[in-house]
Amino acid sequence: xxxxxxxxxxxxxxxxxxxxxxxxxxxxxxxxxxxxxxxxxxxxxxxxxxxxxxxxxxxxxxxxxxxxxxxxxxxxxxxxxxxxxxxxxxxxxxxxxxxxxxxxxxxxxxxxxxxxxxxxxxxxxxxxxxxxxxxxxxxxxxxxxxxxxxxxxxxxxxxxxxxxxxxxxx
Length: 170
Known about the structure:
Elements: H1 11-19, E1 37-42, E2 49-54, E3 63-66, H2 69-74, E4 78-79, E5 86-90, E6 95-98, E7 106-110, E8 116-120, E9 136-139, E10 153-156, H3 158-161
Parallel strand pairs: 3-10
Antiparallel strand pairs: 1-2, 2-5, 4-9, 6-7, 7-8, 8-9
């Protein structure tokens, strides 16, 4: 699928649009409960286990493939369920946070095996309760029994469209 035409330098805004379906599919009045699908997931070592429920099944639900530095280095292929649609079975306390750039989004990974699990835009530790940030960016690479050859993707050119450009100081 072609790169969505998003006119923003802020990835949070861009992925919020994708999560809301603005770029992935025509808006529907409300998701049909019969279309909701659940996917079991876990980190590599199994210390973190959870279930993610999406409003529609794959491949109808398109996965976001971003070319920004963090998504490429962590291998993120993201979907955007509501926070309440991610159920933690065990190991949430085994997740650690990594912040970079503007330090506004927690990239959560397993403390034991370092699997990149999700990105959380809400800064709960600062008391933030913005309902617009009540969506998590969850890495589908950790879903059980998913065939990426059968998925459809939305490509976001984060490498060239997000600022400031990624660099590592010497």
